[in-house]
UniProtKB/TrEMBL annotation:
UniProt family annotation: Belongs to the [NiFe]/[NiFeSe] hydrogenase large subunit family.
Alphabetically ordered keywords of this record: Iron, Magnesium, Metal-binding, Nickel, Oxidoreductase
Organism listed in the record: Fervidicoccus fontis
Membrane-spanning ranges: none
Binding site for Ni(2+): C67, C70, C581
Record-given protein name: Cytochrome B
Length: 612
């Protein structure tokens, strides 16, 4: 009979509440038993419930409160949904300002923050030397490829600089996240809850637009140098882990199921689809506008790129609650005047293969709290699945890896479609990092065809370079518009008296944020939110395991300690590589035969305590 031990990590917080992970591990093989893996959300926020009846224009400001870190992520998803429902999009300068602010307060700020403050400690000297000492010894002997640029001679030196508070990478991330926030606040007015997003525009004070752009560009120059430095450090560290056999620890699907909605709207394309039109017209134009986003959209199922259309991603999305703490709504919603079975293009929701009541436009949030039952309902996270035109139903992964993989298989600014992403950043210097990163630099990465812990981190580091490049593109566009005197940002808007809908999809650091809105006469009738982690954290069902649970199932224990001292390092590395919203303390329980045999309160506290 196999020796087993149950390992529960609870809580690991996410962007909209607390997350726990539980698995039974075969002690002899050091591997989780796949069917025992559960990820579970232990907190209900209720934003969807109390959104009903509110003015849609309030929703970007209400939903930004979902998170104190990535408030602008939800604000941007929400404002696109409101734009669509009201039939109005910003003027060109308004689109550019939205891009510039979102690039800073979400992406350029958050990716290095996630890598160095939240995920980095799991790869720091303090953790690696304690839990995997043989890896530490190998790191001390391995020279870093880019040591002449970043100044860290060995991989062990990089690990040392990832130590919380005392490490150079930790300290630089704190410094540069402030600079990125400053740049975003020039446009948003504040962080992390933007105050200037309005339907069909943005209300930034443009009394002196030229000075605003100078202040933004000054900070972008510093952040460009930092992005180069940060990438080269992480490339060296992750290549080391790839070389020692850690490449597929925390892997998800052998044939990728990934989605990216795209990012950074083209000013002309997005502005042109919403000149006070009917909402159906905006919806019909959104595919062409999304196709021109700097980071292009795409949907891949079973390793095949099946669509690049925004509307396909909308029609294909199903949400159900088999293992979730919610009640069924299908019979109730069909009686509502706003219930629909098709989109404005005439597509049957879920392509006619599943009940359209389970599409987010029709989904109603009805909380039903109860005790956890691992074989029944065990989480506040709902099941998010993609239903394709041929009837396939798949779980879906979102995040930087998904974004970079889609980018690599489509011809666009960053790839010829050959599986390699490539970006060139201009000359940029700042006193805080070595002058060796000043010159123009070109970076390439062949995106692996399977998501894993280290490849998700690698994608995040590379994604930062792409985001910096996109910010420069928008700076140049903004300067062009200012020179031409085109600094108007917004169109007038009103409340459509009939039922209208919106679907706002946008990429954010942790994945794809998607907001669905139904309104009538300026009042929300239904509102549904997929946070960036919602698809990743979904519970298992007959269609398979979602990314979190799949990654933990494929995360064998590498800790070089006795089983009753395992601390779940590989589990939390896998989870944090998706979503790094961490608690300042966690407790781990070890149990046999249903009885707790050991509890580690505030596990790994001495080396990874939160200092934020």
């Amino acid at each position: 009979m196999a020796r087993t031990i149950e390992l529960k990590v609870d809580p690991i917080t996410r962007i909209a509440g607390h997350l726990g992970v539980r698995a039974v591990i075969d002690v002899d093989t050091r591997r989780p038993i796949p069917e025992t893996v559960r990820s579970f959300i232990t907190m209900f926020r209720g934003v969807e419930v109390f959104s009903v009846g509110r003015p849609p224009e309030d929703m970007p400001h209400v939903t930004s409160r979902l998170c104190g870190v990535c408030g602008s992520a939800h604000a941007n998803g929400s404002i696109i949904a409101v734009d669509m429902a009201y039939g109005v999009t910003p003027l060109e300068f308004g689109v550019v300002l939205r891009n510039l602010a979102h690039a800073m307060t979400d992406h350029i700020y958050d990716h290095p923050h996630i890598l160095n403050l939240l995920e980095g400690p799991d790869f720091s000297e303090n953790i690696v030397s304690k839990l995997t000492p043989s890896v530490w010894e190998e790191a001390k002997k391995t020279r870093a490829e880019h040591r002449d640029i970043h100044g860290m001679t060995t991989i062990a030196d990089i690990m040392r600089e990832l130590n919380p508070v005392t490490g150079k990478m930790w300290q630089l991330a704190v410094l540069f996240q402030r600079i990125a926030r400053e740049a975003g606040v020039l446009i948003y007015g504040r962080h992390s809850h933007p105050s200037t997003l309005i339907p069909g525009g943005i209300s930034t004070d443009l009394t002196d637009a030229q000075s605003l752009l100078i202040a933004y560009t000054y900070r972008l120059t510093k952040l460009t140098a930092w992005a180069k430095f940060n990438y080269l450090v992480w490339e060296d560290l992750l290549r080391f882990y790839e070389d020692i056999g850690y490449a597929l620890n925390g892997a998800t699907y052998e044939k990728p199921n990934v989605m990216s909605a795209g990012l950074f709207d083209d000013a002309e394309a997005y502005s042109s689809i919403g000149d006070n039109k009917e909402w159906e017209d905006v919806y019909k134009g959104i595919d062409e506008a999304a196709e021109k986003r700097t980071i292009v959209p795409g949907l891949m199922l079973d390793g095949e790129l099946v669509s690049t259309k925004y509307t396909d991603m909308n029609v294909s999305t199903m949400e159900h609650v088999e293992h979730s703490f919610y009640d069924e709504w299908a019979d109730k919603v069909r009686k509502q005047e706003w219930y629909t079975e098709t989109d404005p293009l005439g597509n049957k929701l879920l392509w006619g293969h599943q009940d359209p009541a389970y599409h987010p436009w029709n989904k109603v949030t009805i909380p039903k709290p109860m005790a956890i039952d691992w074989n029944d309902k065990y989480t506040w996270g709902a099941h998010v699945r993609i239903v394709w035109k041929d009837g396939r139903v798949r779980p879906i992964e979102v995040g930087p890896y998904a974004r970079m993989l889609i980018l690599s298989v489509r011809p666009n600014r960053y790839s010829s479609g050959n599986g390699v992403v490539k970006v060139t950043l201009p000359r940029a210097c700042t006193d805080e990092v070595p002058p060796t990163v000043c010159e123009e630099m070109t970076f390439e990465w062949k995106v692996p065809r399977r998501s894993s812990t280290i490849y998700r981190l690698w994608a995040r580091a590379f994604n930062t370079l792409v985001d910096v490049d996109a910010a420069w593109l928008n700076v140049l566009k903004a300067l062009e518009l200012v020179r031409n005197g085109k600094i108007q940002t917004s169109r007038p808007w009103g409340h459509p008296g009939r039922v209208t809908r919106g679907a706002g999809f946008v990429e954010v650091p942790r994945g794809t944020v998607r907001h669905w809105l139904v309104q009538k006469g300026g009042k929300v009738l239904n509102y549904q939110i997929h946070a960036a982690t919602t698809p990743n954290v979904s519970p298992f069902d007959k269609y398979g395991r979602s990314p979190y649970e799949e990654s933990v199932a494929n995360a064998p224990i590498t800790e070089e300690t006795p089983p009753d001292e395992w601390q779940g390092l590989d589990f939390v590395r896998a989870i944090r590589s998706f979503d790094p919203c961490l608690p300042c303390a966690a407790h781990l329980e070890f149990s046999r035969n249903g009885k707790v045999v050991k509890v580690l309160e505030k596990a790994i506290k001495d080396v990874t305590s939160c200092y934020l």
